[in-house]
């Protein structure tokens, strides 16, 4: 299973279903959308694999904004494949998610790493387009690839 | 196109000390990670592809690469990038086991990696005015294929541009410059050229009395209008 199939519903869960999260501190807002602290949102695979976690979205705070925007602080998104293997981990101190357009963005820092930690990339300023499954990092990009290969030492 | 293959041991030496080889059973050690820096990047997590733009720099254990645009596979978990394409002002620097610095340039470089039947294939193909330079000189070709797994470099239509290393040449081959004796009078080249192209102006003596062209014309018209002398 690739990241595309996993990460999109996870972001959807953040925007559309935040009130279902397991949140120790939940406060009702005048517009009916709730403000959550230390929230976690878990998404599962479909009927054929209901017990398998697809993604876990967590954050220190979620602040609903007008126009379907959602400010998420201390974002952490973990994406799993159908076998339960951790595939991607995304961390961002803060981002804004447009629940209507399915776009997450921030001028701040972003870190992405593969589940095994052998592919890591980070940078400042990002845009995640959910429909296209593409991530743009606009500044100071640094990628580390640990390929697991070895140096063969000739005797 | 005639394809010529060269084994450039002098260039590579033990270059691939960091590269994988196909030697079975040899002891191994972890390979240092590859680092990629860029101004910006686009990641297609579905297509497992990354596009780096602007001041791209790759720090690999075996080489340093800079370019303007780099497209790389995003490897699957635990995998190795199978294809990396660098374009525009590609510069690759590496140091061999003898400590000799090698410098390669091209318009495009394609890195390919795969393992088939337990054999590792790892190549870097340079195209677009590729050249490889070291202390001995500069080698060029239509295409340069750097076979990293086998420590070989292949050149298509190779040619070498020799370059003298003055510090290593015997003194007798560089005799001191002496002034050659000629018949040319002392003077700088600048003066010599000026003398040739701008010779001194001399007054040409004629039988025409002093006067301007206007006066000459006036005299002629007076002669024409005057009555005949008979």
What does this structure look like?
The complex is a heterodimer of chains A (155) and B (230). With 155 residues, chain A is mainly beta. Chain A has 1 helix and 9 strands, in the order αβββββββββ. Chain A has one domain (3-145): Sandwich (lipopolysaccharide transport protein A fold), CATH 2.60.450. An 8-stranded antiparallel beta sheet of chain A has the order 1-2-3-4-5-6-7-8. In chain A, a hairpin with a 4-residue loop joins strand 6 and strand 7. The termini of chain A are far apart. Residues 1-33 and 149-155 of chain A have low confidence and may be disordered. Chain B is mainly beta and 230 residues long. Chain B folds into 2 domains: 3-162, lipopolysaccharide transport protein A fold, CATH 2.60.450.10; 189-222, no CATH class. In chain B, strands 1, 3, 4, 5, 6, 7, 8, 9, 10, 11, 12, 13 and 14 form a 13-stranded antiparallel beta sheet that branches. The longest helix of chain B is centred in the C-terminal third of the chain and has 13 residues, at 213-225. The model of chain B is unreliable at 1-27, 168-173, 175-182 and 186-204 (pLDDT under 50). The chains are: A mainly beta (155), B mainly beta (230). The interface between A and B is large, with 39 and 37 residues. Strand 8 (134-145) of chain A pairs antiparallel with strand 3 of chain B, so a sheet runs across the interface.
């Amino acid at each position: 299973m690739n990241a595309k199939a996993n990460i999109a519903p996870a972001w959807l869960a953040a925007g559309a279903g935040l009130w279902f999260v397991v949140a120790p501190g939940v406060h009702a807002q005048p517009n009916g959308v709730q403000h959550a602290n230390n929230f976690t949102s878990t998404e599962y695979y479909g009927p054929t694999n209901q017990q398998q976690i697809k993604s876990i979205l967590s954050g220190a705070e979620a602040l609903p904004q007008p126009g379907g925007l959602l400010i998420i602080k201390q974002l952490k998104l973990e994406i799993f494949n159908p076998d339960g293997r951790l595939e991607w981990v995304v961390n961002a101190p803060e981002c804004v998610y447009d629940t209507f357009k399915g776009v997450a963005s921030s001028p701040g820092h972003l870190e992405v790493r593969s589940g095994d930690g052998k592919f890591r990339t980070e940078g400042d300023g990002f845009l995640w387009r959910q429909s296209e499954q593409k991530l743009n990092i606009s500044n100071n990009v640094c990628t580390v690839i640990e390929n697991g290969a070895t140096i063969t030492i000739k005797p | 196109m005639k394809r010529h293959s060269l084994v450039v041991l002098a260039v590579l030496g033990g270059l691939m000390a960091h590269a994988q080889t196909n030697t079975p059973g040899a002891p191994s050690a972890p390979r240092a990670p590859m680092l990629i820096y860029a101004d910006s990047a686009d990641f297609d997590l579905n297509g497992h592809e990354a596009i780096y733009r602007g001041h791209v720099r790759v720090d690999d254990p075996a080489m340093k690469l800079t370019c303007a645009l780099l497209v790389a596979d995003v490897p699957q978990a635990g995998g190795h990038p199978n294809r990396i394409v660098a374009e525009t002002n590609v510069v690759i620097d590496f140091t061999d086991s003898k400590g000799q610095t090698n410098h390669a340039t091209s318009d495009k470089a394609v890195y390919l990696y795969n393992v088939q039947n337990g054999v590792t294939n790892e190549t870097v193909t340079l195209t677009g005015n590729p050249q490889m330079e070291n202390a001995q000189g500069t080698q060029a070709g239509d295409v340069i294929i750097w076979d990293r797994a086998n420590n070989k470099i292949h050149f298509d239509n190779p040619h070498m541009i020799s370059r003298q290393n003055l510090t290593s040449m015997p003194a007798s081959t560089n005799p001191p410059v002496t002034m050659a004796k000629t018949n040319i009078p002392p003077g700088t080249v600048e003066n010599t050229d000026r003398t040739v192209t701008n010779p001194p102006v001399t007054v040409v003596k004629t039988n025409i009395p002093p006067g301007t062209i206007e006066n000459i014309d006036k005299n002629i018209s007076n002669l024409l209008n005057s009555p005949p002398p008979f």
